[in-house]
Amino acid sequence: MKIADVKANAFAMPLTSPAFPLGPYRFVNREFLVITYRTDPDALREVVPEPLEIGEPLVKYEFIRMPDSTGFGDYTESGQVIPVSFQGQHGGYVHSMYLNDHPPIAGGRELWGFPKKLATPQLDTEIDTLVGTLDYGKVRVAKATMGFKHRPADHQAVLDSLAAPNFLLKIIPHVDGTPRICELVRYFTTNVTLKGAWTGPASLELHPHALAPVAELPVLKVVSALHFITDLTLDLGTVVHDYLAE
C-alpha cells in the first residue's frame, strides 16, 4: 500500500476495516427519556470544564433508544448532559455516556469526542410505565421511571432544545501518553422531525460505582421529565476551543 493510498483512505481505525462508516449519520424513531434534576452546584463545578459556564445546578439524565441509525445499527444509550453556556450561547455539555454497541462508541469518541463507555442501558415500557435502566457489568447504576404518555409536552420547547448546540471535551493521546488533541467541540442535530412528546410523573435513582460515577452528580430533586420520539441527523462538529494552544 502506497503512502498516497494510506492518506486517501485513512479516516478511522483500523485502516483496512474501519469500525464505523463515513457519515452523515441519520437516526429514525430515536426515542428519548430525559429526566431533569437538581444537583449539588459544587459537584457540577468540579466536572464542567472552562470556558463553559453553568447556571442553575441542573442535570439532564437521558436514556435514548436508537433502533435505526445509519452505520451504527440498533442500540441504546444512557448518560448525563449538563445545561451550560459558551460565550453567551446556551446548550448542553455531554458529561457521560454509556452504550451497548461498539461502532458508535468508536465513532463517537474518535470523531466528536463523546465520553462513551461500554455498558448495558435499556429503555422499555412496562405496563403503564416507561422504565430506563443502566447496568455496568452486573451492577445497577441508574434507574428511571415515568408515567407512560400522561400528558402532551410542548412540541416547540422540545424542538428548541434539540436545536441548541451541545459541547464535548475531545481528548486523544499522543503515542507517549501525553495529550495530542484536547479540544472543546460543538455540534448540532439537524433535520429534526418530532413525532410525539409527552410529560408526566417521574423518578430517578443513581447508585455509586467506581467506573460509572453518575451518582457523583447526586439527585436532589426531580424537576421535570420528557418522553419524545424523533428522526434527526447528527452533524459533525467544530472546534471552539483548543486547550493545547494556550
Automatic annotation (TrEMBL):
GO molecular function, one term: acetoacetate decarboxylase activity
Active site, renumbered: K116
Major enzyme class: lyase
Keyword Lyase: yes
InterPro entries xref list: Acetoacetate_decarboxylase (IPR010451), Acetoacetate_decarboxylase_bac (IPR023653), ADC_dom_sf (IPR023375)
Keyword Lyase: yes
Enzyme nomenclature, EC number: 4.1.1.4
Catalyzed reaction equations: acetoacetate + H(+) = acetone + CO2
UniProt keywords, alphabetically: Decarboxylase, Lyase, Schiff base
Family: Belongs to the ADC family.
NCBIfam families linked to this entry: PRK02265.1
Function: Catalyzes the conversion of acetoacetate to acetone and carbon dioxide.
Database matches in HAMAP family: ADC
Name this protein carries in UniProt: Acetoacetate decarboxylase
Organism encoding this protein: Dyella japonica
Organism lineage string: Bacteria, Pseudomonadati, Pseudomonadota, Gammaproteobacteria, Lysobacterales
Name of encoding gene: adc
